[in-house]
Amino acid sequence: MQSDKVIGHIVQWLKDYLASSGAKGFVVGISGGIDSAVTSALAARTGAPVLLIEMPIHQHPSQVNRAWKHIRELESEFPNVNSASVQLSGIFDAFVEAMPKVEKAGARDMALVNSRARIRMTTLYYFAGMHGYLVAGTGNKIEDFGVGFYTKYGDGGVDLSPIADLLKSEVYEVGAALNVNEEIMNAAPTDGLWGDDRTDEDQIGASYPELEWAMKFDQLKQDPSAISERQMQVLKIYKRLNKANQHKMIPIPVCTIPPDLR
To answer: How far apart are CA 149 and CA 190, in angstroms?
Structure first.
């Protein structure tokens, strides 16, 4: 991939979209991971105002440390970049306390994990509304259009998606060209929604390189008879998640009223 040209293309796309929207700048949530690091570094290069928001909810210290190291690096390099930190742990705890207890702990745990992402989305839009900014999404192609590994109306609730046509491996290539720090480049990908250090691979059951292979294999509709046992397992994981999460990837269904009923 021609990383430098891809960077120039995305930065110009961001500039053009911002100009046509009438907004004044961008808001980016910073997690300490590669996707938000790349998205924020690209937004910073537009020259437009960029506000980076760190939003811990019982976050693992390593994630917080990586997030702030990246924020400080961008602030020192780009005068158009500013930051804010909003401690959301108390808000989340109050939300948990307000919700009724249920017998199915597993379902409740997942509902609360998604609630973390939605609280963060609400926070980003608060700052966007205050300043007249756009919320820049941080999802990559595998997450957004492959396995749907994001929260609907959480980290999926954005105004524009600068890196959603980049595979995870390509995000790392762009990150290297942008000089994203080694701590982020080397950190195992994680959604940061569980309050511990579990990785995306722990949750999905496959690595991003494996999922990229499965996505390409599935799109090309190749013969699965010649693949290895592990590849078959990964392909099943990919297909299962892709099917289960189609509701995130397609437009919201609208019930159209026939003209003769109006």
So the answer is: 11
Please, what sign has the CA dihedral across residues 208, 213, 217, 219? Answer: positive
Q: What pLDDT digit, counting tens, does each position of 16-34 carry?
A: 999 999 999 999 999 999 9
List, in order, residues 6 or more apart from 158 with CB less than 8 Å away.
135, 136, 137, 139
pLDDT value at residue 191: 86
> What class does CATH assign to 3-202?
alpha beta
C-alpha closest to that of 39 among 174, 199, 207, 209: 174
**How many CB atoms are closer than 10 A to CB 49?**
20
Give the model's pLDDT for residue 166.
96
Closest among 213, 225, 196, 71 to 147, alpha carbons compared: 213
The answer to whether 99 touches 66, Cβ cutoff 8 Å, is no
Q: Where do the DSSP E strands lie in the chain?
A: 25-29, 50-54, 81-85, 133-135
Domain boundaries, the chain: 3-202
DSSP-derived secondary structure for 158-207: -SB-TTTTS-HHHHHHHHHHTT--HHHHHSPP----SSS---HHHHHSS-
